[in-house]
Input
Amino acid sequence: MRPLRDYERLVTPLIDAATLAARVAELGAEISAAYRGSDLFVVGVLKGVFPFFADLVRHIDLPCQCDFLGLSSYGSRTQTSGVVRFTSDLSHPINDREVLIVEDIVDTGLTMSYLLNNFQTRGPRSVKICTLLHKPANQVVAVPLDYVGFVIENHFVVGYGLDYMERFRNLAYIGYFSGALPVLESCP
Ligand code: IMP
Ligand code: MG
Output
């Protein structure tokens, strides 16, 4: 085990890199089997999804198109207000396509519910959701989650793309703050 770097000392490991890699490979295999014969359109929800997306698509053994959009919800540092907005949109249409949304974490469900409603207006053939993490404790709206990596307890988690105040996305594992949330300077 390598020693913790200074900025990681407040983070308690929850899911290590090897466990993440094994589960992501399983999800990729499941998705490959389910979409065999189709031309998949995989949508990554930025920013938090970037490591998961990169690892997952390399386990999808099918022709597929990759695209991204950005969503952000206003709120406090760790709680969403449910008011979602696009920070960037797809660069290609999804009408008549088999769409798989890839998300880092579903918490209240408000973000995914907003995106599903938006996508329905674009005439896709199908839309499914793959999320690395699901935190059911805070669910406000139920959304169908077709592929779930891990169901977790009600912790505020960071790492493997997930941030706290734009930091910690670069950790190779997922962890949580066991004490009070650290006081960090806002990113400029
Ligand atoms: P929801 O709309 O409440 O389901 O939240 C979805 C978004 O909130 C996710 O895409 C994340 O960006 C963020 N989020 C929710 N829980 C966490 C967490 O524990 N750590 C980091 N980000 C989170
Ligand atoms: Mg997200």
About this structure: The pocket of inosinic acid (ligand 1) is lined by residues 48, 73, 80, 103-111, 156-158, 162 (CB under 6 Å). The radius of gyration is 17 Å.
